[in-house]
Write a structure and sequence with these properties.
By secondary structure, the protein is α+β, with helices and mostly antiparallel strands. It is built from one helix and twelve strands. It is elongated, with a radius of gyration of 27 Å. It starts with 9 loop residues before the first helix and ends with a strand.
């Protein structure tokens, strides 16, 4: 008995392949769309890279270091003393973020005298920088922070434009863009920011 071979026409093969191809393209399109939406959401609502401009945070951060900020760090937690944060003043037209360290918390009284920072009358002894502060600026007279204000300084305290100066002053909670959490560049300094 002779076996009958069943041949598919080239048309059948093309139609079958075309369906598979279209299905595969559809899966890829959906995958790409999901990745784009996730990336946009992370950048818009979660994590963003920011470039440090200037030397005001030396030695913690240097000029042109690229860091990640957690934009949701303060959704459920309060900013803490010595957190390094990124902020933009509400009337700032510049496109870059400022990066400084929180020194004074809401409701506190801040004074700079004889090169030292005083909070509520007590000298702070555990500052992340050792330099004596040469310029008191606005903090030459005691400043009382409002319930949503922070007093910020750069670690390079004698080369930092920060809350001691009129054009920055006390920074409100809504001006805080996020907490600096990680340095991604340069590669040799890759790691958590402290």
């Amino acid at each position: 008995m002779r076996r009958r071979r069943r041949y598919r026409s080239s048309y059948d093969r093309e139609e079958f392949d075309m369906k598979d191809f279209l299905a595969e393209v559809g899966r890829w399109a959906v995958s790409i769309l999901v990745v784009v939406i996730l990336a946009y959401s992370i950048v818009t609502f979660g994590v963003q890279s920011v470039t440090m401009i200037g030397q005001s945070m030396d030695p913690a951060l240097s000029n042109q270091d690229v860091v990640l900020i957690n934009k949701r760090a303060y959704t459920f937690d309060e900013p803490q003393r010595y957190d390094i944060i990124a902020f933009k003043l509400k009337d700032d037209t510049e496109s870059y973020f400022n990066i400084k360290r929180i020194i004074g918390l809401p409701g506190e009284k801040v004074l700079i005298k004889n090169g030292h920072v005083f909070i509520n009358g007590d000298v702070i002894k555990d500052l992340p920088f050792d330099d004596l502060i040469m310029t008191e600026g606005l903090a030459e007279d005691e400043i009382t922070l409002d319930e949503d204000e922070y007093f910020l300084m750069g670690d390079n305290c004698n080369n930092s434009e920060d809350s001691r100066y009129v054009n920055i002053g006390n920074v409100s909670r809504k001006e805080l863009s996020g907490k600096v959490i990680f340095r991604i560049s340069p590669r040799e300094k890759f790691g958590k920011v402290k």
